[in-house]
Amino acid sequence: MKLYHAATSVCSQKARLVFAETGTACESVLLDLTKGEHMTPQYRALNPDAVVPTLVHDGLVVRESSLVVEYVDRVAGGGLMPREPLAEVATRLWLVRTLAIHEAVNSMTFATLIREQERARRTPAEIEAWLASTPNPQTAAKRRDLMENGVESVFVDGALHVLLGMLRDMAAALDAGIWLNGSAYSLSDLALTAYVDRLDRLGMAHLWTGRYPAVAAWLSHCRSRPSYATAIESHIPAGAADAGRLAGERAWPAIAARLG
Ligand SMILES: N[C@@H](CCC(=O)N[C@@H](CS)C(=O)NCC(=O)O)C(=O)O
């Protein structure tokens, strides 16, 4: 299997987790998104929207991180997909929901960290040229709004709606055990780790601390698994952690005001 991925992208972290959890070997093709290495014609032939991750196996191209994790687990024997029908459908629902959760986490990252970084390193004209190069015009419009309005963007309100729903439903599921499907770690936990981890790294754990202590405990259980060090922590450059937390902390009062 060959995995095209990027160091700090949340969906790449999610894809790397399944390789670490199942002990599956892969050929790694690390793309630098800041240098536009995902925009080349060669990569866009595999992934027309120019996003990571993409998995290639025996000529099969698998896009969408939820499909990547399900596929790799299945090839490895399916040990992370619950067999019991209710738990299986609950897991599949989380895998589907991560499409919206990804967009929400992406909006929060753009509204804070990426907005600060891009405004510091590019002129307004360069930012517009970068946004215009985004293949999907809807994504470009969303990012333009987030770059202009930061946490005042309507996309932040939409993101908070999705994320509060995720946290509420995670806390309810965690009533039954330390993992989302009870006593066994599964693809549900794997699929959500990178998103909740990113929110914490953006200084946004206020969304659950106090209100949903089970989510905080769940995150520390996920972080204590060896897969977390391999798939997430080891790819985060020194110094990057502080930038995210500081950007999120600066934005938090305005976000809290939107929560009402
Ligand atoms: N729903 C897709 C989302 C993929 C996605 O948006 N990936 C981001 C990184 S997490 C990306 O490649 N962004 C680069 C860009 O949009 O220029 C998935 O889960 O695979």
List the helices and strands and how they pair.
Layout: E1 2-5, H1 10-22, E2 27-30, H2 41-46, E3 54-57, E4 60-63, H3 65-75, H4 85-121, H5 124-132, H6 137-149, H7 154-173, H8 187-201, H9 213-223, H10 226-231, H11 240-259
Parallel strand pairs: 1-2
Antiparallel strand pairs: 1-3, 3-4
Helix pairs in contact: 1-3, 1-8, 4-6, 4-7, 4-8, 4-11
What does this structure look like?
- The chain is α+β, with helices and mostly antiparallel strands.
- It has two domains: about 1-75, Glutaredoxin, CATH 3.40.30.10; about 85-260, Glutathione S-transferase Yfyf (Class Pi), Chain A, domain 2, CATH 1.20.1050.
- It contains eleven helices and four strands.
- Strands 2-1-3-4 form a four-stranded mixed sheet, with helices on one face.
- Helix 4 crosses helix 11 (about 240-260).
- The longest helix is centred in the middle third of the chain and has 37 residues, at about 85-120.
- The chain is globular.
- Glutathione (GSH) binds near residues 11 and 50.
